[in-house]
What does this fold into?
Amino acid sequence: MQLYMLDPLAESRWSDLAATHPKASVFHQPGWLKALAKTYRYRATALTSTPPGEPLSDGLVFCEVKSSITGNRLVSLPFTDHAELLLNENSTSSAFLEWLRTEYRQHNWRYLELRPSSVTVDFRDSLQPSQSFWLHTLDLTPSIDQLFRNFHKSCIQRRICHAERQGLTYEKGASNEILDEFYRLLIINRKRFRLLPQPRAWFQNLIECMKHNAEIRLVRKDGVAVAAILTLRHRKTVVYKYGCSDESFHHLAGMPFLFWRLIEESKAEGVKTIDFGRTDLDNDGLVRFKGHFGAVRQRLNYFRYAVKERDRTAARTDMPLARALFSILPSALSSGAGRLVYRHMG
It folds into this structure.
């Protein structure tokens, strides 16, 4: 099979494929790829069996991450929960995988990594599992009343009713003011978990590049923002990508309230599925929280090809000393450190 490379940000053929392929997601959209390029300087490349000048029938998109600290590698795609190979009935995954292995050897990458949401391709002879998560999805086809009844009674239903009695104000949008409040909460949240925040430019670029497909939902108490979520949309699917809150206001149940508004509004707009995102296998609290909304979980596996044994699995990220430092950094320094570090982490 002859394969061809193309620039997915320069050719409308990729936009058309991302908009129509049944396995395409929000992470295949040019807006997501453009945000990666603007923020982290990751240049996206797509591979296809379709000759130049013809509408694309298949494709694999990836970015080369270049780092003197963490090494050079090929990833499909950095900071992305999942990215399917967009194949058709005539495509053969073996041709794509052989091309990737050849490029790997020529460029001397540390590894190449694919992040499919479902294992419909046999990777056994080509790539090995490197990291696993839970992927949670909520089917919105039942009635809104049935969706609410499916929520955990005490952990979600009662919490939503409690939030509605607290006089919270709700807003949705992508203005600079809403983004500022979201980012303030994000820094608070990341400090609590002793993690560096992503650079503010990442969220600004997401909003600018994704346009109407990126939204922030925010709740306030007496004018103070207490919880926020950022979602992305692709066709009939909404993806919950980021969430943050101020722990001192958790008694107000702002996060359950926000997810309820997201579900209500998505249902009214004809959305069929909410992708609740990935969760670490050992994060029992977050797994339970998403499950209490009725979200169904499935195993999400990433796959790598690497010569060296140490590069075949994801490195540990606990780093207790570094995380202790992150928790005490002033907000300005924490944000600046995130801006320097994250481009090496994709």
